[in-house]
């Protein structure tokens, strides 16, 4: 398979950026310009390349906005948001540029949100200890609505995702298909981690419960949005897929989409630690980055503590038993053949999960692109939510 970089890690992240092209997160020409300036395992060259593109697309957006070109301004601000996110991605959270650049990609996205066809509501979901989880509720535009109230998709991010990046999968396509999509920043994600230092939690069903409580109350205060709280699905990819399966244990969830989820993060982290240990004497950038991100996300300082905490991130453990026994809604899984994984094969995890889903109908498919992920996912949701559409 063609690679944009001889660094596996950089190539993976470049493919991630390029994958958002179909939903407005990247432009081929801007991508080529940035890639040509990135040096292997050089975080500064990565930053400079993507910062150049983010600043450039911001200027393009400003020019388009001044001219009254709504669709072009929105497009430029979306790309700027994704490029600002990418720019600081390779830095440790201790780098002084991380928080300011996080605020830049948020600002760019919110400028784009004001130009979208459907209403985008900025929400703060009450969580714990006075903390609120920020998110966006993307509503379908009037022309995309189907008869009746709008079903809702709660989209859970992964270990290193941001709520703004989540737009480029379900946040882009869902509203155009008549769905309301809520994507939020949970513990251990985005600015919740970078500013508040709140780590990931394995029992994401607690986070989902707070989100569902919020949706129910919000739907009563905004009856004009016509949200269907009787048709709520949860979706996520990779770590977000694991979170989605945990969230699906809440009986208020009526469907679940888990894209390439892991069964247990412990096996993934063991592999990272083994490779990192082997690379200590080589000054390996990827190994150092992986360990740093892992410890920060878990809220610990030592690698051994990280490994111990990772044991809790499993769909089957001594404390929770077989989590999947509590999933009662239909589940759509992707895994085998779905493309290259960063750390572990999705095949083994997906097949294991499918075997343990004893109480509900489950299906596995092979998917390789963001656009196809969305298409297959919404075909599944349409079926179980009985969405009626006319063929084109």
What would you say this structure looks like, in words?
The chain is of the alpha/beta class. It has two domains: 8-115, acylaminoacyl peptidase (de novo design (two linked rop proteins), Up-down Bundle); 118-264 and 311-384, 3-Layer(aba) Sandwich (Rossmann fold), CATH 3.40.50.1820. It has 14 helices and ten strands. The protein has helices at residues 8-18, 28-35, 43-67, 70-87, 98-113, 163-176, 190-194, 205-221, 239-247, 265-279, 285-298, 303-310, 346-356, 370-385; strands at 120-126, 132-138, 150-156, 180-184, 227-237, 255-259, 316-317, 321-322, 331-334, 362-365. The strands form two sheets. An eight-stranded mixed β-sheet has the order 1-2-4-3-5-6-9-10, with helices on both faces. Strand 1 (120-126) and strand 2 (132-138) form a beta hairpin. The protein starts with 7 loop residues before the first helix and ends in a 7-residue tail after the last helix. InterPro entries: AB_hydrolase_fold, FrsA-like, FrsA_esterase. Keywords: Hydrolase. This is Alpha/beta-hydrolase. GO terms for molecular function: hydrolase activity. It comes from Setomelanomma holmii.
């Amino acid at each position: 398979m063609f690679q944009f970089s001889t660094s596996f890690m950089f190539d993976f992240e470049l493919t991630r950026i390029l994958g958002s092209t179909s939903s407005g997160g990247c432009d081929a020409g801007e991508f080529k310009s940035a890639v040509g300036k990135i040096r292997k395992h050089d975080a500064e060259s990565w930053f400079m390349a993507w910062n150049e593109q983010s600043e450039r697309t911001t200027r393009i957006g400003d020019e388009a906005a001044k001219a009254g070109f709504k669709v072009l301004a929105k497009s430029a601000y979306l790309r700027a948001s994704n490029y600002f996110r990418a720019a600081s991605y390779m830095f440790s959270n201790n780098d002084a540029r991380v928080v300011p650049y996080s605020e830049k990609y948020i600002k760019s996205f919110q400028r784009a949100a004001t130009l979208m066809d459907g209403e985008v509501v900025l929400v703060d979901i009450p969580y714990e200890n006075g903390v609120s989880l920020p998110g966006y509720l993307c509503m379908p535009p009037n022309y995309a609505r189907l008869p009746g109230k709008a079903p809702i998709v709660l989209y859970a991010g992964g270990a290193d995702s941001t709520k703004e990046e989540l737009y480029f999968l379900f946040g882009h396509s869902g509203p155009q298909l008549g769905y309301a999509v809520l994507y939020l920043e949970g513990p251990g994600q985005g600015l919740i981690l970078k500013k508040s230092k709140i780590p990931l939690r394995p029992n994401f069903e607690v986070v989902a419960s707070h989100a569902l409580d919020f949706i129910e109350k919000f739907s009563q205060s905004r009856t004009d949005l016509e949200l269907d709280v009787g048709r709520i699905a949860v979706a996520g990819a990779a770590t977000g897929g694991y979170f989605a399966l945990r969230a699906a244990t809440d009986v208020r969830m009526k469907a679940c989409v888990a894209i390439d989820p892991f069964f247990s993060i412990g096996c993934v982290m063991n592999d990272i630690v083994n490779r990192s240990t082997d690379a200590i004497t080589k000054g390996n950038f990827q190994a150092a980055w992986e360990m740093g991100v892992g410890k920060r996300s878990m809220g610990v300082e030592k690698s051994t503590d990280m490994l111990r905490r990772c044991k809790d991130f499993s769909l089957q453990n001594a404390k929770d038993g077989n989590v999947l026994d509590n999933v009662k809604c239909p589940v759509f899984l992707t895994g085998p053949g779905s493309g290259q994984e960063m750390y572990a094969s999705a095949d083994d995890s997906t097949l294991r999960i499918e075997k343990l889903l004893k109480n509900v109908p489950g299906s596995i498919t092979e998917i390789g692109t963001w656009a196809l992920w969305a298409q297959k996912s919404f075909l599944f949701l349409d079926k179980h939510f009985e969405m009626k559409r006319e063929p084109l």
